[in-house]
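hi support,

uploading two proteins for the ticket. first:
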Amino acid sequence: MKFVTVVMALLSFAVVSVSLAAQADKPVRRDRSNLPITIKSNELSADNRGKTSIFSGKVVAKQGDITIFSDKLIVNYAEKNSEIDKIEAIGNVRIVQLNRTGIASQAVYESRDGRIILTGTPNPKVIQGADSISGKTITYYVDDEKSFVTGGGDPNSRVEAVINPPARKGDAGGR
């Protein structure tokens, strides 16, 4: 799977996907595979035999309207066709697209399983506009467009969703 699909998928799980039931028809995803990817970092270590590239130090990866910020970005390639197998963003992870932002200590995309997992301390959080969702682990299943947020089994670590109602025209704010 292409890097662009991974990045898009990291951001496409909006808070709304957690609060709304799954739709019967899958929406068409925008294909960004033809857009250039720009990755800036302080260092790059590429291992062709090991099929990995490690970007470290103030990493900024940008493709189209999606930007990933992290301390380190590790790209693992598949053995056969050199497509991306797994991407790990580590340290101060922030993924921004339009009005959506994902924040975590670590984000891992596993292409074989079609899932993205946000973890770390403090708890990962996805913010869209005034709405947000947080928990110990946020897992997004790309192909199914489903999210699973958990408190990690600890009764003191719970999932928290903040969903604001849309503003109504002519609402004076009080009754």
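and the second one:
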Amino acid sequence: MFHAIKEWFDPRRVEQVGETPDYRFSLANERTFLAWIRTALALLAGGLVVAQLLPPFAIPYLREAVAVGLMVLGGAGALRAVDRWVRSEMAIRLGRDLPPTRFPAILAVAVAIGSAVLIVAVLANGAGS
């Protein structure tokens, strides 16, 4: 595990693996990484907005739980982005298939569940007023 984390911070280690690919593949990998980072930042910002700007829900501590959940997903997304970037870059350099990942499915399910919880909370707030 710590070996993989070392690779996040030392691009020379990645460059020493395999052969230098067509730069377009590396740039596409980097754009994918940046898209994941934007998603992570959006989740973090969403968590902050929920925590600071939404009024409390009818269900105690639901607002805080949603905010923390969004921030945890954002942090996990950022870590997953860098790990995926390194693993994909190494696969490209070695001429292997890209590594499989379940993270997009996990993120989508978590967002869908969060959406359902928020819908219930909004309806509960509307019924209570």
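thanks. also noticed: The chain has one domain: 23-128.
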